[in-house]
Amino acid sequence: MFYALNLPLPWMLGAIVVTLIGTLARWNLTGPEKARPFVVAIIGVMLGSGFKPDTFDHLDQWLISLAGLVLCVLVSVLLVQAYLHRFGGQSRVTALFSAMPGGVVEMVEIGRAEGGDEKAIILAHVWRIILVIAAVAFWFRLVLGFEVDGMMPMSTHPTGMLDLAILGGCAALGSALGLWLKLPAPTFIGPMVLSAAAHMTGLTYSSPPLALVIIAQIILGVVVGCRFKGSHAVDVFHALKLALVSTAIMMAVAAGLAWGVHLCTGHSTEQLLLAYAPGGLNEMSLVSLAIQADVAFVATHHLFRIVVLLLLAGTLLARIAKAMNHSASSGL
Question: Average pLDDT of 244-260?
């Protein structure tokens, strides 16, 4: 339906919407979680094919934009945490881990361990991802006029059996390496890195077959939609109301800093907005492909955000949560 209506990211957003409706209607739906590692590997390989031999020639010029990303995350978390605690009725700990733009599994686990509301944190992150994907896709499509379908531009290089073997090897070996190295999102980042290396060295110039990419996006959308399973409609829509405001805050901060960094560096505001948007790495990279932005730039910034948050999750954030709990118990 989304494809027929010519809507942005039709396969992923369509699957999310239909599955979400089904879970709220109490259909007995089960997300294909076991298939997720395979489909994100396909998307990782596709995104890696957006890298070129000269991709990192200007890496030193990204330092200012990476510093802007750190500021973006810090300001967003402070504002959203304050909003969720003061106006959303959440405890300080729940609000803190709900406000973090990334590392969903880690934020849920550590937030729960520190006394946060696990379900509220999950709903906050799921809605954030869905709202950011939808907002970014519709903005680039309806306002800026880009064709946002989540596909690679058509390659002029024919895809032969050797190319398919190389791409398949990137997916399989990359997933294995990612798991072995214990990378965040291992079956996504590993294949993307190997695919990027293969394309940057000229080993291949091909992308995964279109049909595989469509299937991968549909399955990924179903997985996201099924995360609402077991939630009561009242809780889901309460979380949505909070997420609409908190996501608007995050996107406003991202847009403001994107414009400011654009003035300092000359990077396009659109590319910086994709790099700073608090959406999923997979989805924001897909949009960057669709508008033919620098995929490496966008993906590197999202990876940097994820790695920093994961490094802080078990140390600094846990200590802050303990301090919040102590403050609450002391009546401060």
Answer: 95
